[in-house]
Amino acid sequence: MPYIGRATVTAKREFARNMVSITIQCPAVAQESLPGQFVQVRAWPGPGTAADPLLDRPLSVAGVDKQKGTFELLVRVVGRGTRLLASVPVGETIRVTGPLGRGFLEAAGAAGPSILVGGGVGLAPLKFLAEVLTAGGHEVLSLVGARNAAELPPPGELAGKVQVATDDGSAGFHGTVVALLEQMLTMVVFRSGRVPAPVVYACGPTPMLRALKASATLLGLPVYLSLEERMACGIGACRGCAVRQVGPKMAAGEVKMVRVCHEGPVFAAGEVDLDA
Ligand SMILES: Cc1cc2nc3c(=O)[nH]c(=O)nc-3n(C[C@H](O)[C@H](O)[C@H](O)COP(=O)(O)OP(=O)(O)OC[C@H]3O[C@@H](n4cnc5c(N)ncnc54)[C@H](O)[C@@H]3O)c2cc1C
Ligand code: FES
């Protein structure tokens, strides 16, 4: 059962340009969360007549400290909900429901050498995944994309090896993170024959996920994607986040929808239609 209740903000810091790291004291979420799972948060009154925004906002768990009983969120301010959340002072409480959804390793079934691909708010679940995989002794390479150097996380924030790509070439590879992945794989980084083929885990904007799905599938790599559909209830009740399921398990003409908040947010790339 997810935790539902109030939790105290214990620390805040700037993580990257326009992205705040918020640490929250909540032992239940810290103990139970798995990489790729998310919480629904509310830093404003409600639910009730004056609730604005009306709905809680979904945010990925970006890391946990089980001993301290805290978990971390990485919040990019894009609207009223994230602005209110990012401005909660240390010592104040917010409402938390979670952890929710299916994480990366539950979707993949096992851990091994991994390539993590993402950028922007997609970094949040990947940061947590990199920590768990490296702690388990697995080889991890994170490919982090951003528009420019200022939007990248500072060095040392992600566990394992990190390579960066920027659209304007101000840091690392000049181009998209998917183009960087293609270059890395053709350089035979993981393909020495001495290690199993890596699994690719990704989170980011849909066009990036679409491009990644096409490249990695072509290269024959298993790919798991975390989708960030808009959500309402966040607990599988309203079907507002449903996406179309695809793949070999579907009969011809069969139409089936899966809920991103409940069956996801992580899916095998071949399992969901990113073009709808
Ligand atoms: C499973 C999941 C995990 C997420 N994890 C994170 C995270 O770790 N950090 C983080 O900063 N954000 C994350 N998000 C996105 C976050 O939930 C939204 O940015 C937030 O709900 C926006 O609320 P708002 O009131 O600030 O903006 P709104 O006023 O609701 O929207 C502002 C603008 O952002 C757009 N927008 C809002 N939600 C989304 C979305 N889900 N996808 C694309 N565009 C959207 C709107 O269309 C609008 O243009 C996640 C979303 C999901 C579904
Ligand atoms: S947001 Fe309600 S079912 Fe997913």
Gyration radius (Cα, Å) is: 18 Å
Low-confidence stretches: none
Summing up helix and strand content along with how strands pair, one would put the structural category as alpha/beta
* Count of beta strands: 16
**Bound small molecules, deduplicated:** flavin-adenine dinucleotide, FE2/S2 (inorganic) cluster
Q: What strand line-up does the widest sheet have?
A: 4-3-7-1-2-6-5
Question: What is the number of helical segments per DSSP (H or I, 4+ residues)?
Answer: 6
Beta-strand portion reads 25-35%
What's the pLDDT, averaged over the residues? 89
CATH class of the largest domain: Alpha Beta
Shape designation:
globular
Share of helix among residues?
A: 10-25%
Corresponding CATH superfamily of the largest domain? Nucleotide-binding domain of ferredoxin-NADP reductase (FNR) module
Largest sheet: 7 strands, antiparallel
Number of domains: 2
Summarize this, please?
The protein is of the alpha/beta class and 276 residues long. The chain has helices at residues 27-32, 80-86, 104-108, 123-135, 177-186, 206-218; strands spanning 3-16, 19-25, 38-42, 57-60, 63-65, 70-76, 93-100, 114-119, 140-146, 161-166, 173-174, 199-203, 223-226, 242-244, 257-259, 266-268. The chain is globular and about 50 Å long.
Describe the structure.
The protein has six helices and 16 strands. It has about 280 residues and is α/β, with parallel strands linked by helices. It folds into two domains: about 5-100, Translation factors (Elongation Factor Tu (Ef-tu), domain 3, Beta Barrel); about 105-270, Nucleotide-binding domain of ferredoxin-NADP reductase (FNR) module (Rossmann fold), CATH 3.40.50. The strands form three sheets. Strands 4-3-7-1-2-6-5 form a seven-stranded antiparallel sheet. A seven-stranded mixed sheet has the order 11-10-9-8-12-13-16, with helices on both faces. β5 and β6 (about 70-75) form a beta hairpin. The longest helix is centred in the middle third of the chain and has 13 residues, at about 125-135. The two termini are about 30 Å apart. The relative contact order is 0.15. The model has no long low-confidence stretch (mean pLDDT about 90). Bound molecules: flavin-adenine dinucleotide (FAD) and FE2/S2 (inorganic) cluster (FES). FE2/S2 (inorganic) cluster binds near residues 232, 240 and 241. FE2/S2 (inorganic) cluster binds near residues 231 and 237.
